[in-house]
Design brief:
Layout lengths: L2 H41 L2 H9 L14 H8 L2 H9 L18 H13 L5 H35 L3
Length: about 160
Amino acid sequence: MTGEAEEREEDLQGESDTMEAQKGTIESKRSELNQILAEAVSNGDLRTVRNALDNGADPDYRGISGNTLVGRACMHGYLGILKELKKRKADPTARMSGSAYSGYNALEIARNRLNDHIEHPRSFLKTKARNNVVKFMEQWMEEVKQDRIRNIGQELRGLTV
């Protein structure tokens, strides 16, 4: 190899190393942002949820527990956070994994939590709020189902036999 070719190869290797380092930093920062988002969802902190999503957090993030953000919001009855996650295109059909609600989707969790609160007469306001969450999730899941039907229909119309 000539001196120029060796120099160019070293430059390319240096650029590749820099890109890999930047990629690692980006993934590390995104992971940190997703963890902040998950904590904000669990705490009902809508302002932080919006801020994290505005700055690139993943609305479908699952923490190490395997809980979806939509599922977490349903567990706690946070309707405002659910509306924000819907706006950000989170998947309400995703099933939880690795927790007491493993295998459940968000609607099933919302219904389950509603039943928990109905049993306690002093929790009328919580029951009303959770009922609103269930209604919201039922509507959202119906919208998702209808969208899937439309998408499948469009795909079928695009296929030729």
